[in-house]
Amino acid sequence: MSGRVLMPLLRRDLLLAFRRRAELIQPLVFLLVVISLFPLGVGPGPQLLAQIAVGVIWIAALLATVLTLENLFRSDFEDGSLEQLVVSGQPMVKVALAKVGAHWLVTGLPIVLLAPLLALWMNLSAAGIPVLVMSLLLGTPTLALLGAIASALTVSVRRGGQLLSLLVFPLYVPILILASSAVGSAVDGLPYQGQLGLLGAGFILALTLAPWAIAAALKLSLE
Amino acid sequence: MSRLKRLFHQFGSPPWLFQFSGRVVPWLWAACLILSAWGLWWGLFRAPPDYLQGESVRIMYVHVPAAWMSMMIYLLMALMGAAGLIWHVRAAEIMALSSAPIGAAFTLLALITGSLWGRPTWGTYWVWDARLTSELVLLFLYLGVLGLHNAFDEPRKGARAAALLSVVGLVNLPIIHYSVNWWNTLHQPASIGVSGNSIHPSMLWPLLIMAVATKLFYAANLLTRTRVRLLEENPRRRWVRDWVEGGKA
């Protein structure tokens, strides 16, 4: 049963994303631009940059994620395919998982891959870079899952974008804290596995519960 | 049918809820006013100043009950919202939604009084203290629920969306709370607060009275708001017409 909706929908969303490559690049460009503004704003001192590097990279990743979340269900909602998916009787939980999975593959994963470069820019010490990548790898799927709930709730609302950020940022607080603490510990030569473990636990929790909330929110938006 | 179940069904019926709250609301408001006046007088004039914090400790009689209420109301709002979503009880949705502005107001009050208290005690209006930060995040959660509801054109749909969001927030709230606490211990030494010593009865009593008074305020305000919404949403029902024409329900 799962193969019938999960994989085809995932493939379809990926295909759609790659047909619009220009849009695919946008969040990454946004990330680069935001991060390059920080040295201009606070000064190019390498020590100061190293100190704020994790926070800046993670906050920019949050913003880039939220920026793309607005369109997660939008086009499917507008052309009616979302409604067809609900009517089709397929489990909405799997539909939600496929949509979020495709979204993470095209926006979250590139951020993870770009992170080492950003870390060099921000003069993060070498010990922190692998942990930063790990924290993004464990954290960005959680961002996508939690954000998809808010995206599904606001899909039928006009100008839902600003509202979306208000809805998701409070939910992102623990992830930001754990991730920046993990990288900070690694830079200081302290154990960081605990924080990464908690990030992983958060991801598993979100993966278990969020699809149900997304499914409920989608049904509600289509009422 | 068990008694509890009947009560549940009665609360779910708009005319019954409207009548019941009409009878209860004046008493709740009266009790709330009397208790707040008593508690405030006791806290602001009769209770002794603290030997460490001096007169500024009196802010506590407003701040602490407001902070308690801000958390309790979020819990109740999410539970009522969940009940509304699961059993399709419209009255529960209305009450969940009516709780949001009250809870947001208490949160804001707790934040303002907290920073006013922080100025003489900590020497600054704002520190990124764990409790202040949690409270700030809670305010954002409330604002999200309110904003989401307002964004919808149909009030019914907006209420259901807001209820779902508040349930998601309730699941996250303990995680947020503990992560903020933990973050705080990493970055700052423990802040000065009321020490672990048990609080003296001369200060405890006004605090307890104010805690009860704020709960009465919530109940009275909630039911008043609920009555207005019940009327707004059922303009064509018989019991509404009877009430408007007869002046009594």
- The pLDDT mean of chain B sits at 85
By DSSP (H or I, 4+ residues per run), the number of helices of chain A equals 9
Strand content of chain B: under 5%
Shape of chain A: globular
Sketch the topology of chain B as an H/E string, one letter per element: HHHHHHHH
Per the CATH scheme, the topology name of chain B is Four Helix Bundle (Hemerythrin (Met), subunit A)
Give the number of domains of chain A. 1
Please tell me how large the radius of gyration of chain B is.
20 Å
**How many beta-strand elements of chain B?**
0
SS-based structural class of chain A? mainly alpha
CATH architecture of chain B: Up-down Bundle
Please give a structural write-up:
The complex is a heterodimer of chains A (223) and B (249). Chain A is mostly helical. Chain A has one domain (2-221). Chain A is built from 9 helices and no strands. The radius of gyration of chain A is 18 Å and the shape is globular. Chain B is mainly α. Chain B has a single domain (26-192, 199-230), classed as Four Helix Bundle (Hemerythrin (Met), subunit A) (Up-down Bundle). Helix content of chain B is 80%, strand content 0%. Chain B is built from 8 helices and no strands. Chain B has helices at residues 3-11, 14-46, 60-87, 90-122, 130-151, 155-187, 201-233, 238-246. In chain B, α3 packs antiparallel against α4 (90-122) and α4 (90-122) runs antiparallel to α7. The longest helix of chain B has 33 residues, at 14-46. The radius of gyration of chain B is 20 Å and the shape is globular. Mean pLDDT of chain B is 85; it is low at 189-193. The chains are: A mainly alpha (223), B mainly alpha (249). Chain A binds chain B through residues 146, 149-150, 153-154, 156-160, 163, 166-167, 169-171, 173-174, 177-178, 181, 202, 209, 213, 216-217, 220-221, 223, and chain B through 85, 137, 140-141, 143-144, 147-148, 151-152, 157, 160-161, 164-165, 167-169, 171-172, 175-176, 179-180, 182-183, 186.
